[in-house]
Structures are given as structure tokens and as C-alpha cells.
Amino acid sequence: MSFQVAVCQLRVDEDKQKNLSRAREMIDRAAAAGAALVVLPEMFNCPYVSHLFPRYAETYPDGESVQMLAEAARRGGIYLVGGSIPERDGDRVYNTSFIFGPDGSLLGRHRKVHLFDVELASGLVVKESATLGAGNRITVVPTGMCPIGVAICYDIRFPELIRLMALKGARVIVVPAAFNMTTGPAHWEIIFRVRAIDNQVYLVGASPARDPLAAYVSYGHSLVVDPWGRTVGLAGETEQIVFAEINLELIDGIRRELPLLRHRRTDLYDLLSREQ
């Protein structure tokens, strides 16, 4: 079985309504072009600036962003990984990805597990924990094509999380992300290729388009990597939609030839989930 994935690398600015309109238009274009799975970037409805997240935060199911996503999925008859948005739940705000089915129903949500608190030598300082809480679930959702795992940006740097998704049955792992101009050139494509090879799954990375005038400049280069580690879809820096074919038989063939998951020495070591 094969299906098409579309990654919407959209431009994000301070006007939420413009961001939502732009996302809606790109989702519709992707669905019209035949995509069965459509993916948006991390924090697609607001600038990636930690202190702004509470201002843009929404609740589920009443928030205008999640309502737009549900309606766009239903209208296009697609599976939609809605990038991520700031989600308010009680007195906490989370970096959350909402996943919708073709009927507009919520299939699941992933709250970013690993918060990006760094001080890079380039001078970039980010402290997500100043305004965000951390999630505590490993997210794999069922679809009509295959189980799909969802992680967010910094999560991909932790191989245990991605491996647990694969062990839970994920055959495609989607990662809305906003790598920057230091980490992007150094690690973006490499880390997606390595995770795909290690787990013999498709990896999908969705970045915002690059805005050199933004307070936080995203790298762009949204991509799709196959389970052999080949980049089969790659954007540049600008706003665009990247399409790629997901071939589930390729996963099966690679796992037969090189049965990494079956050869794990679980008598010697194991990986446990302690979800809360």
C-alpha cells in the first residue's frame, strides 16, 4: 500500500488570523493534489518566541486554530497532523500537536515531551520551560493507512522516544519542528535520516518557512525520509508544499532484509515506557 504525504512549509508571523488563513489554504491545496496525510509545522499559528506562547494559547475544543484544523481535515477528507500550537489546559500551557481524521474527529494529541532549554555558542538562548509544561505521553495514533507516531522538534533528539513509537507500531513518524540557523545546518537532515534508519520507518519533518527578520529564524528544509535513510522529499527555505510517496511495502521489505527490530537483545537490554 502507498499513499501521499504533503508537508506544508508555511510562513508564520505575528498575525494569528493570517497564519490560520495561510495554513487553511495550503491544507486545501495539498488535499486537492491527492495527499492522504497533511502536516503543518511547529507553532504554525504564532511566532516561535517563548514569552508569546501564553498570549496565543487556546483550549480544546473551543480554540479557533483547532476548529480550523478539524474542519480542514473533514473538508479535505484527509488525516491532518496540525503542526503544533500553544495549548492551554488549566493553568498550564503546552506545545501541542492535534491530529485529526478525515471526518474531522480528534485522533490524538501530542504534548512536547522534551522542552528546548538551551544556550548556544551562537548567542541563541531559548527557555521553553519558562512558559510551557512538558507532556508525558508517547503518541501513536491509528489511521486507515498505518499507525502514525507524532513528536515535536526537540523530541527527535531523544532516540528512546522514537524507538518506543516504532515498538508501539508506528510506521510513519511525523515531527513538526523549528530547528534554527545553528542546529538546522548542522543536524536537521542527518538526525531525520538516522532516526529513519535506526527504526526502519518513514520520518516526516515539517518546518516553518524561513523569515530572516524574525526573532527566531527557522531553518526550513521540511523533508521526508524513507526507511533506508534516503531523503525523498525536501523543501528549500521558502513557503512551499513538499509531496512524497509513503510506500508501506518498502518498510516490510527493508525489515525482512535487515531485521534490526527483531534482532534486539531483549534478554540483555530493554526499553520501558513509564507513561503517566
Outline of the structure:
With 276 residues, the protein is α/β, with parallel strands linked by helices. The protein has a single domain, classed as Nitrilase/N-carbamoyl-D-aminoacid amidohydrolase. It has 6 helices and 15 strands.
General description of the model:
It is a single chain. The chain has helices at residues 16-32, 53-56, 64-76, 159-167, 183-199, 248-257, and strands at residues 2-9, 37-39, 79-81, 85-89, 92-100, 106-111, 117-119, 125-127, 139-141, 148-150, 172-176, 202-206, 223-225, 231-234, 240-247. It is an alpha/beta fold and 276 residues long. The protein has a single domain, classed as Nitrilase/N-carbamoyl-D-aminoacid amidohydrolase (4-Layer Sandwich). Strands 1, 2, 3, 4, 5, 6 and 15 form a seven-stranded mixed beta sheet that branches. It is globular and about 50 Å long. The two termini are 34 Å apart. The mean pLDDT is 96.
Radius of gyration equals: 17 Å
- State the CATH superfamily name: Carbon-nitrogen hydrolase
Number of strands: 15
The topology string of helices and strands comes to: EHEHHEEEEEEEEHEHEEEEH
What value does the average pLDDT take?
96
Number of alpha- plus pi-helical segments? 6
Topology at a glance:
Layout: E1 2-9, H1 16-32, E2 37-39, H2 53-56, H3 64-76, E3 79-81, E4 85-89, E5 92-100, E6 106-111, E7 117-119, E8 125-127, E9 139-141, E10 148-150, H4 159-167, E11 172-176, H5 183-199, E12 202-206, E13 223-225, E14 231-234, E15 240-247, H6 248-257
